[in-house]
Amino acid sequence: MRRKLLFGNWKMNKSIEEARAFAKESHELKKFADSINVEIGVAPTYLSLAAVKEENPELNVAAQNCHFEDHGAFTGEISIPMLKELHIDWVIIGHSERRTYFGETNEACNKKLHALTSNDMKVIYCVGETLDEFEKGLTKKVIAKQVEEGLKGLSVEQLKKVVIAYEPVWAIGTGKSASKEIAEDICGYCRELIKKNFGAVSEEIRILYGGSVKPENVHDYLMQANVDGALVGGASLKVDSFHQLIANIAK
C-alpha cells in the first residue's frame, strides 16, 4: 500500500528564523504523522534549508528547484552537490510558478529529473493545466505531454524516486480547488500514463494533488484511490494548520 505523503511548499515565505522556529516545533508534528503512517515534509527557501534540516534532521526537507549541472556559469542557480552537502535529498521540479514566471519547460524538467534521480535524490514533479486549458477540455492532453516529456528516458529504478504532483494552475493560490472527482480522475490518468510507459511500477508511484488544499478538504482528496497525498501551500506555513491537515487525513 502506498504511504500517504503530505508536503508543504513554502514558496517565497518565512525568514530563516521563522523557518527555524517551525522546525523546532516540527518534532511533535512528525511523531504525530508517523503514528498514523503519514509521511511529511516541507520545502523552504534555499536560505532556510540548512536551518530546518539542522533543527529537525528527521524531517523531509526539499529544495524548491535546482539546476541539472553540478557546477558552471549559471548565475543565481543551485546545484545538486550543494544541496547534498546540506543533507537535502528532496527537490520540487516543474511547479507551475516556475513554468509560468521563469519559462521552465518539460525538456528542462526532464534534464533535472535525470540528474536528480541519478544522484539518488527524490523528486516531486509537478504537472497541471491552466484555466484556459481546463475550460477548453485540454486537461488530459496537457498532462500527457508534461508526464511523458518530463519522464522521458528514465529507467524504472529512477522513476521509483519520483512523486508526481497534479496541481491545476487555476487552483493554486486562488482559493478555488478542483473537486475530489477531478483530482481522482487526473491522478488516475497520470497513473495510466506511467503504466503505459513504464509498466507495473505505476502501482508503486505516489501521485499527489495540490491546489488550495486546506484542513477542511484534505480528507476528501486523500480518500480517493489514486490520490496518495497532497502538496500544500499556505496551509503548511503554520504548525497548527499543518497538524490539522494530518489530523483530518486520519479522521
Task: Give a short overview.
45% of the residues lie in helices and 16% in strands. The protein is α/β, with parallel strands linked by helices.
Strand content: 15-25%
**H/E series:** EHEHEHEHHEHHHEHEHEH
In angstroms, what is the radius of gyration?
Answer: 17 Å
CATH architecture label name = Alpha-Beta Barrel
CATH fold call: TIM Barrel
Q: If you average the pLDDT, what whole number results?
A: 96
Helicity level: 40-55%
Task: Kindly give the count of domains.
Answer: 1
Morphology: globular
Distance between the termini: 19 Å
Look at the structure and give the CATH class: Alpha Beta
Query: pLDDT under 50 segments (min length 5)?
Result: none
Spatial arrangement of strands, main beta sheet: 1-2-3-4-5-6-7-8
Superfamily at the CATH H level?
Aldolase class I
User: How many beta strands in the DSSP annotation?
Assistant: 8
Largest sheet: 8 strands, parallel, barrel
Helical segment tally?
11
Structural class: alpha/beta
What assembly state would you assign to the polypeptide chains in this entry? single chain
Describe the structure.
The protein has eleven helices and eight strands. With 251 residues, it is an alpha/beta fold. It has a single domain (4-250), classed as Aldolase class I (TIM Barrel, Alpha-Beta Barrel), CATH 3.20.20.70. An eight-stranded parallel barrel has the order 1-2-3-4-5-6-7-8, surrounded by six helices. Helix 9 links the parallel strand 6 (162-166) and strand 7 (207-210). Helix 1 packs across helix 2 (46-55), helix 1 runs parallel beside helix 11 and helix 7 (139-150) packs across helix 9. The longest helix has 20 residues, at 16-35. It starts with a strand and ends with a helix.
